[in-house]
Amino acid sequence: MVVQVVLTVFIGLFFLLFILFKVIEPSYMMFFNKPLFVHWYPFSKRLKPHQRKILSDDFPYYSILSAKRKEYFEHRILMFTKQYQFIGKDIVVTEQMRLLIAATYVMFTFGMRNYLVPLFKRIVIYPTAYFSTENEVFHKGEFNPMMKAVVFSWEDFILGHLSSNDNLNLGLHEFTHVLHFHCMKNNDPSSIIFFDAFNEVVKYFSDSVLSSSLSDTQYFRPYAYENQFEFLAVVLENFFETPAQFKTVNPDLYDHVVTMINYKENQ
């Protein structure tokens, strides 16, 4: 009898979840261009007081969040630092490094339900620009899918983080490459929304009229026009660094980015 009740409950729950994710959510996405829900953590994890202070002092985005969303943010940071390995090359990886790198990624993906991706397993940190034996040039950062690694020069990462209005942010730039590749190959709700909106964003690179008009504003640095991958990465840097100016220069493109990452200005 007990077994039958448990089995009935299990089947009912499975059916409910099937309806929720396979019927209701696709319809919701079609109308609202966002997942049915983003945050749900039955066993939420919280940062320690000294870790929270690092974010409060060094990561302005965290400070503008509501109390509830700070809880979500902290949980995601801890899940990120648990999922990915941090490796220092001729540098000791500190807690501040882990928190600021994780917070950059979490800020970027805060509107996405499936935010931890399998395309990389480790964060490699060099003290300064490092020499690549593959193309024999110095790099400040890169996403290397073959090595499943995101690599940063800490000097350049922290410089991009501290200079909040120069539209140069190494962390955002490389993590955009990660999310771009991930969303091209996956069909979870956030990936679908990201890629659909990306197809609108990339028109400002591929369409000669739109591209010329955007280039004339000189708002994006020339590197944005190297290829569609760099275009997207630069667009996201500008989006987070100078949002008010971005919205003024091209409100339509700005709105596509808002949809792409399900971003909320007033958290």
From TrEMBL:
InterPro entries in the record, alphabetically?
MtfA_fam, MtfA_N
- Identify the Pfam families for this entry: Peptidase_M90 (PF06167)
Q: Does the keyword RNA-binding apply?
A: no
Under SUPFAM superfamilies, the record lists: Metalloproteases ('zincins'), catalytic domain (SSF55486)
Signal peptide stretch: none
Keyword Transmembrane helix set for record: yes
Looking at the UniProt entry, the stretches that span the membrane are: 6-24
CDD domains from the xrefs?
Peptidase_M90-like
UniProt superkingdom: Bacteria
Keywords, in A-Z order = Membrane, Transmembrane, Transmembrane helix
Note the PANTHER family from the entry.
MTFA PEPTIDASE, PROTEIN MTFA
Protein name in the entry: Zinc-dependent peptidase
